[in-house]
Amino acid sequence: MTKWWQKAVVYQVYPRSFQDSNGDGIGDLPGIIQRLPYIKKLGVDVIWLNPIYKTSNVDGGYDISDYQAINPDFGTMTDFKKLLAQAHQMGLKIMLDLVVNHSSSEHPWFIESRQSKDNPHRDFYIWRDPVNGHEPNNWGSFFSGPAWTYDTKTQQYYLHLFAKEQPDLNWANPQVRQAVFKMMNWWAKQGIDGFRMDVISLLSKPDGLPDGPQAPNAPYGDGGSLVANGKHEHEYLREMNQQVLSKYDWITVGETAGVTIDQAAKYANLDGNELNMVFQFEHMGLDNNRDPRLGKWSDQKATLTALRANLTKWQQKLANRAWNSLYWNNHDQPRVVSRFGNDSPQYRVLSAKMLATMLHCMQGTPYIYQGEELGMTNTHFATLDDVVDVEARNAYHELVDQEKIISGQKLLRYFDAKSRDNARTPMQWNDQKNAGFSSGKPWLQLNANYQQINAAAALADPNSIFYFYQQLIKLRHNLAVITDGDFQLVKDNDQDPAVFAYTRRNSDQQLLVICNFTDQTLERDYSLVPEAKLILQNYQGKMTTSLRPYEARVYLTD
Ligand code: TEU
Ligand code: CA
Asked: Domains in the chain, ordered, with CATH?
């Protein structure tokens, strides 16, 4: 039986960058309330809000100092309740971000924990003695530098897989798990509709915390690959499911860096005793640098062949075992039209629609990141001063200043392609002052193209990317085959370097999806049956026999 969240489409809001209501340059909850009609108009079912909790804001709110309080920059609990009530009234559900692999170092638990070795909260976190005067192992943090910080007060190191202000919680401690489950049940009582779970695959750390694999000349070893999908991971999630999730008709999605198909099949198993679905990351790593020391920092382009092979694998190998999530973008990823499409004025709209078609006709629950429905593009970082995000700034410090692996100029060009700030530039509402985002100075520089690319222009243009997404969402709601059909590549398409063509089929419908990933006009023959109806295309006017640049077509046979 189809679950409601299998037919749903989610819209992701990054509150800091969505809509400022009081001129302080920071997006806020009243701003989101103002924009609910816009989100409703798009036709989505669920809104996912990035963290809205009290935070020291070292990592965009992913360093939480009180899980049950609202970040005052964003408003108050009253504002949140108003947002929830208004969204519900409009038929929109709200899912929150659950960040419980780590807390902020300003969380009272950690403030207590670092006081003394026998503090009742000591074991809420992961403390170790120095080894030969050094860190307990070779792990590097995902945000550069070592994953350990020495605390002079108690002369031990604490573990932080992310920034040093984000100490990892010790999930092996049942008190930690109970405290988290209690907090989740409290949010359930407030009436929320689900959680997106931050780096949930990293909860269970390996016994003995051994060194990780270390690339030649790399400053640190890779702890992440040892931690991901650890020994007790599924035990913890099943416990969470029993004590919290099973009680509510929620939508839950785990952010699971390093997840394989077989692991995903466990996290998102159809028995429903863990999560509904996970975000896998393989397609987000296809354009990584070949030098492992540079990781994601690159201006490399993924080939269609690699992208298709990857997405096809996830479509087919998860079918009837678990449920996929579908995404091109989020607050950590560069803008899809710049990354996998073509953001030149000539092809931006066409290629954004093509990419949307490719993703939204697949099986899974699609996620749209704010501004994706406008075809917002990557931005440009002229100097390091323009770069705000902790991941990029720390990387610059380590790779340019300390290790001298790359020049500053080169790394800035890689930031243009990959920095998380690309996703976080303020939402472009109109061509007025600060794009209608704020009457004050925005916390992060706007993308310079807001006069051309903005919501007001999109809403006034019947052929805009916005209305194209609206059509795709309607299609999903109306055509069962998009939810339940099987997925097959068109014959020999796996060899095609330029076109992605697949079918979706159930017992009474067939969908044929054809996407030209290039700026070339191409000749292809997919031997269409005469009954096939063209139900969606990204060009207006007369059909041609050849595929035009970035052309996308969807045919239905029933
Ligand atoms: O991101 C997890 C994660 O795997 C990051 O390494 C992320 O993929 C990376 O920044 C992309 O280069 C989650 C959140 O989505 C992210 O915003 C947080 O910074 C991070 O966890 C820590 O909470
Ligand atoms: Ca504000």
From this structure: 4-103+174-207+225-381+424-465 (3.20.20.80), 108-159 (3.90.400.10), 486-557 (2.60.40.1180)
